[in-house]
Amino acid sequence: MKKLLILLLMLLSLTSLFAISSIDELDGKNIGVQTAVLYEELIMDRLPNATFQYYTMPNDMILALTSGKVDAYLIEQVSFGVQKKNHPELTTLSEPAGYINATCIIGNNSKKDRLLSEINAFIAKSRANGMLDEIYDYWIADFDPDTDTCDITGFTGENGTISVAVEGGYEPFSFISNGKISGFDVDFICRFCREYGYTPEFFEVPFEAIAPGVETGKYDVGMNIVVSAERNETGTLTDVYYKTPIELVVLGEDSSELSFFEKLQNSFYKTFIKEDRWKLFVQGAGETILITVVSILAGSAIGFAVYMACRHGNKVANGVTNFMLWLIHGMPTVLLLMILYYIVFGSSRLSGTWVSVVGFSLMFACSMIDMLRVGYNAIGKGQLEASTALGYSDHQSFFKILLPQAAHHFLPIYKNEVVTLIKETSVVGYIAVLDLTKISDLVRSRTYEAFFPLILTAIMYFVIAAVMTKFVGWVENRIDPRRRSQEKILKGIKEWE
Q1: Separation CA 305–CA 368 (nearest Å)
Q2: Cis amide linkage into residue 172, ω under 30° from 0
Q3: For residue range 10-57, what is the model confidence (pLDDT) as tens digits?
Q4: Against a cut of 0.90, is the pTM above it?
Q5: CA-closest candidate to residue 209, choices 369, 67, 453, 34
Q6: 302 contacts 361 by C-beta, under 8 angstroms
Q7: What secondary structure letter does DSSP report for 43?
Q8: How far apart are CA 473 and CA 459, in angstroms?
């Protein structure tokens, strides 16, 4: 036993010898970086053989590092300070990767020139009177995630509402606290709105979607955009409102004294009990169910109506329908949603939830048309001829004889499409919808834990899918032609003498 302990200590000491201690040692290694922040440009020239792996959420990089998928990751110094409190095994290299300047990006719409001038004036005034230093010290230098709060009230709104895109899951800049948006960026823009007579409307979107959304005019202001030469050319950027060093995070020694079960208990508390975060999961599940149910109903109705218009071979109707089927089926779901949100409805105030409903309704309608075609083609043409000979009209033949038999063929596919739609709704966070998956991401960004948020989210998707498919199965049994009596089938049909 003693020999085994000695061997383990020797292995640990050898591991510490090979621990990364300088930036140059990362050449040829895997380095994590959040998508679209551009931090990798600070060290690309110095590490030409390094491979950069991109992550949507900053805290996903912690799991990537601890599981060995990356050897280090890039993050702002203040954000690392927050991560360190929850993951004592993390440490940083003594030399920072570099320094970045952050600005706001202004939306490409009618408010652009006015907002650019006003925000620049506000930044200059706040720097001169010390307000920028005040909120920097509060949110960054002395940040306490348990006590620091943001006042998001007191707006007069005489100059209207401005839409503000924030990441929403990046302490201490923007995050959900007690069910409300908070953080340095939120505090900054709220103070600006109170001074200039605006009411802010915040949208939590993935960081990589902030600049595209602002440049299309969907949002009036995007927060925390890293300055680069390319962005200066393509976007309308304000003056710098904060700067910070960028650190390279590597694994150090775990100084935590908690046991495995104590860590598990602590993770459960932070995920569900603290700040009543279980309510966020309920809210997210409700959003997912709303989008799913409305999209299925609307998509089924639209698909059925289009199929009926094409059923008798109308060339124009079939040509347009086939083109739309080709277009929508060939497009990735998230791309379709982003085109609808940022381009088709870019200038409207339609919320991301209802844009999602439009997108998924179109997708489900296309699937519905295909299913009806498959089910109808599975029935012999003699069925229509026989029903006509018995005195049925075309309308009666379709709804009383053909459709019930077709449904028997396509309803199993319909159930699979329902499950597929439920799973595909997980991407709506890209267009500022707080669905179940997005809520899971936001909670993980606060707790720095992955186990409970991800497991609960998976379970909730399973439950939603099970309930929906059970209902479709009940409908399938109710309309099964083998379960219908002759009297019910012939009801309303005049008997021949």
Answers
A1: 10
A2: yes
A3: 444 444 445 788 899 999 999 999 988 889 999 999 999 999 999 988
A4: no
A5: 34
A6: yes
A7: T
A8: 21
